[in-house]
Design goal:
Layout: H1 15-25, H2 28-34, H3 37-40, E1 44-46, E2 49-52, E3 66-69, E4 74-77, E5 83-84, H4 86-94, H5 98-109, H6 114-122, H7 126-148, H8 155-164, H9 169-172, E6 178-179, H10 183-193, H11 198-203, E7 216-221, E8 227-233, E9 240-242, E10 245-248, E11 250-252, E12 272-276, H12 279-284, E13 293-295, H13 303-311, E14 316-319, H14 325-338, E15 344-347, H15 359-366, H16 368-375, E16 379-380, H17 381-391, H18 398-414, H19 418-432, H20 436-471, H21 475-495, H22 504-515, H23 532-538, E17 545-550, H24 556-570, E18 575-580, H25 585-597, H26 611-629, E19 633-637, H27 644-653, E20 660-665, H28 679-697, E21 701-706, H29 728-734, E22 737-743, E23 756-764, E24 771-778, E25 783-786
Parallel strand pairs: 12-13, 12-14, 14-15, 17-21, 17-22, 18-19, 18-20, 20-21
Antiparallel strand pairs: 1-2, 2-3, 3-4, 4-5, 6-7, 7-8, 8-11, 9-10, 15-16, 22-23, 23-24, 24-25
Helix pairs in contact: 4-5, 5-6, 15-16, 17-18, 17-19, 18-19, 18-20, 20-21, 21-27, 24-25, 25-26, 27-28, 28-29
Length: about 800
């Protein structure tokens, strides 16, 4: 159980945090010893649990129905269904409320937390206190009603369950069905058990919309086990005729809230749930061994239920809804609702239970094992709903076919899992005998429309929320809300209109056709004429992530500038987006000019010494300006507020994306727009999102990264490896090519005007080449050249 109790004032210690500390520091074994349960309940250790009689006092023939889990620190009774954590255990055994139980634990085990606990309890909002006092009273009603169900007073209710519904009397004892006494008797009982709570007892909701005729009930618990009210069931199968309403079978206590699926509090360590409609199904079938079943009743399946599923780590749900029109309709709606979640949905087609109406009736006729086997026939929601769309549409006419295709593709457009979405498209093709090409254009339009609609809704929502915050004077949260959402929407917008992934067969045909058009010996990417060995090692600069790692001041920024100039000069149609996360735009332009003129980098930023030098610098600026006007060169710096989202948007909107290369100098400094628990988590996301650029837009991305500092002791100096890259676990893993740039002679590197620098290609997915390429680094003019091999270009004369 989790107790979401927040104090009114921020300076007051947080009660939820204090309770969490108590639960973390106290084991259920310690609590059981303090409560003397081993003696009282005859508990015996079996593996990692203690088993014995239930503290509620009901009969236990084997004397081991009650179990304390010593690993996960919770208790459960297999007969009456009681379960909870150490706080709930103290409440159950001592017959006290949650606040008194927490105080008892603090007195016994954590005296240092008594003062902050008292302060927090004192400052609790009245509505929170009232909610938990109400839950304590409901708990007393449940315990007494459970006892009464098997006494003469409860015979009328018990007969309905055992004779009317056919429930096994022994199995029934482990369910939460209770006898619901008259209002007057319930209030009288509560007054005897909690005489100090008269005001709360008088105000406690016991009746619903249909009076005091019902004698059966089920407690409705939230995911933590707290009772929020009662579902009341007529003890006559046909229900009651009340006022103008005939056959009333269900009612509930006034103000009952249903924050979670019914029965979710029983779910532990399970990834898969069976979801039914009927509360009786979810109340009784666990007693037969189907312990992963929950219900949503007559309420609409909403987002709050999805939140509860996520909180418990549920990965799959199986819909086993009633065999009627409502069951079919609810199955459709839930499939659509969960399409955008990461929870897999499977559907047991309701008609497969025919002639029975629901799982409860099916199990009564065929047994629980037969129902388990039936569940195994469930279909993926994508397949089931697509077939359902075609089943209810007349596809014999052109209009009907168009409607069926439109409805199924719109559903596919909402599915988060691309494999599930593709399954819908494949089902459409199979059902209508269509070729893959027939649906591609229309499906792409559907995806675009869905993305645009989602973006529009997100903009409206964030605008409304930010306006509300601003009116409340919360300007900083309002601005943060706008900024973060805008960045996320830019990323999503950048993907609008991208061609969806083709089926593998279509991809193979397309790739074969494209490859057959290649010229023998043709490189696979952009050419590097000034670095022919590097060009050969990578078969050109291909759409991939290329990481260039080096020690500080080894020339990695200058090398990226050299590569940018080479690409632009060697490929007339190529474009370069250069992002500097370390240096200013002014410094990067200076390196470009030095490379283009072969003049000392310091001289190009001073007044030219003569006419020849002035002309060379002028020609360099002219060349860069022409490339910029042609949209072939753009240099940006970090102070311009760049993020991954803005880079992605720039790539998406670039008019020459087919021949574009992106260079990010200082990848580790890219500002991120998420919230992270650690720098490692942030770096993982940074590496993943840079990789997405290459996959999404099919463009080369060259990034620079740092190497870890060398050991001070020269005797321990070793050659650099992939593992020397900062955050190597993700940067090196994501990169298709990893180049390590290191001085051949580190001791002399600082004093040499033109040192030899080794470019080791340590990882290469683009070709079989591995090894080192020697480069001469002319520091004065900010230029690199390959030391060995022919070089058809003379440096400084390529403008």
């Amino acid at each position: 159980m989790t107790y979401n109790l927040r104090s009114r004032q921020s300076r007051t210690p947080d009660l939820t945090g204090i309770i969490r500390q108590i639960k973390d520091r106290v084991s259920i074994m310690e609590a059981a010893k303090a409560l003397d349960l081993q003696q009282k309940l005859s508990l015996q250790q079996t593996g990692m649990s203690l088993q014995g009689n239930c503290p509620t006092g009901h009969p236990s023939t084997g004397h081991h129905c009650f179990s304390l889990d010593l690993t996960d620190h919770f208790y459960h009774c297999f007969s009456c269904g009681e379960s909870g954590d150490i706080v709930a255990l103290v409440m159950l055994v001592n017959g006290i409320g949650v606040f008194e139980a927490v105080k008892w634990l603090a007195d016994q085990f954590t005296p240092d937390l008594k003062q902050p606990l008292d302060e927090s309890l004192e400052n609790l909002p009245e509505e929170v206190k009232r909610k938990h006092e109400q839950a304590d009273l409901y708990r007393l009603i449940y315990q007494e009603g459970k006892r009464q169900l098997y006494l003469p007073i409860g015979k009328i209710a018990l007969d309905y369950l055992t004779q009317g519904r056919g429930y096994d009397p022994i199995k029934l004892q482990s369910t939460e069905w209770i006898f619901w006494d008259s209002e007057a008797n319930i209030r009288s009982y509560l007054s005897s058990k909690a005489p100090n709570q008269k005001e709360h007892i008088d105000q406690l909701p016991l009746l619903g919309a249909f009076g005091d005729k019902f004698r059966l009930a089920l407690p409705f618990r939230d995911r933590h086990g707290t009772i929020t009210g009662f579902l009341k069931r007529a003890h006559e199968k046909a229900g009651f005729d009340i006022r103008d309403t005939k056959g009333v079978r269900w009612d509930s206590t006034k103000g009952l809230t249903k924050p979670d699926l019914f029965g979710l509090n029983r779910i532990r360590k399970q990834e898969e749930l069976v979801v039914v409609e009927g509360y009786p199904d979810a109340a009784y079938l666990p007693a037969l061994g189907l312990d992963n079943i929950v219900a949503f009743g007559q309420a609409a399946f909403s987002e709050k239920y999805i939140e509860g599923l996520r909180a418990l780590g549920i990965k799959r749900i199986i819909l086993a809804l009633d065999n009627d029109n409502a069951g079919l309709k609810n199955s459709e709606e839930i499939c659509r609702l969960l399409a955008e979640s990461n929870i897999q949905v499977f559907v047991l087609d309701p008609p497969t239970m025919s002639p029975h109406k629901d799982p409860d009736e099916y199990v009564a006729a065929h047994g629980i094992d037969s129902f388990r086997k039936l569940i195994e026939t469930s279909e993926r929601s994508s397949m089931w709903l697509t077939k359902r769309i075609f089943a209810i549409t007349d596809i014999s006419s052109d209009l009907g076919r168009a409607r069926a295709i439109s409805g199924a593709l719109e559903f596919a457009g909402t599915i988060q899992n691309p494999l599930e979405a593709q399954a819908v498209v494949d089902t459409i093709r199979t059902q209508l005998s269509l070729t893959p090409e027939m649906l591609d254009i229309y499906y792409r339009q559907v995806l675009e429309n869905a993305s645009r609609k989602h973006i529009q809704e997100s903009i409206q929502n964030v605008t409304r929320d930010s306006q509300r915050m601003a009116k409340e004077g919360k300007l900083e949260p309002a601005l943060r809300n706008l900024t973060l959402t805008a960045k996320q929407m830019l990323v999503e917008y950048a993907q609008v209109g991208m061609e969806p992934e083709k089926p593998f067969s279509a991809f193979l045909a397309s790739k074969r056709a494209s490859d057959s058009q290649r010229i023998p010996g043709q490189r696979l990417g952009l050419e590097l004429k000034q670095f022919p060995t590097i060009d050969s090692a990578m078969c050109g600069i291909q759409p991939s992530m290329i990481a260039l790692a080096a020690d500080p001041n080894t020339g990695k920024t200058i090398l990226t500038v050299n590569l940018a100039v080479d690409i632009l000069q060697s490929n007339p149609g190529a474009s370069v987006l250069f992002y500097s996360m370390d240096d200013t735009r002014d410094a990067i332009v200076g390196r470009f000019v030095a490379k283009l003129t072969d003049l000392p980098i310091n001289d190009v930023q001073r007044k030219p010494k003569g006419a020849a030098e002035e002309k060379a610098i002028g020609d360099a600026y002219k060349w860069m300006s022409e490339r910029a006007e042609e949209n072939r060169l753009n240099v940006r710096e970090i102070v311009e507020g760049m993020t991954i989202a803005s880079i992605s948007e720039a790539v998406h909107t670039h008019p020459n994306r087919e021949s574009l290369i992106v260079i990010i100098d200082g990848m580790y400094n890219i500002p991120m727009d998420g919230r992270y628990s650690s720098i490692r988590e942030e770096n993982i996301d940074r590496a993943n999102r840079v990789k997405e650029l290459t996959k999404l837009y099919k463009v080369p991305v060259i990034v620079t990264a740092e190497l870890r500092k060398r050991p001070v002791d020269d005797s321990k100096r070793k050659e650099r490896t992939l593992h020397d890259i900062m955050e190597t676990g993700k940067y090196a893993y994501n990169a298709d090519v990893v180049c390590l740039l290191t001085p051949q002679d580190p001791d002399k590197y600082c004093t040499q005007p033109e040192p030899i620098v080794e470019l080791e290609i340590a990882k290469n997915k683009l070709s079989s080449f591995r090894g080192k390429i020697e480069l001469t680094f002319k520091k004065e003019t900010a230029t690199f050249r390959e030391t060995s091999g022919s070089n058809p270009y003379s440096f400084g004369q390529g403008i």
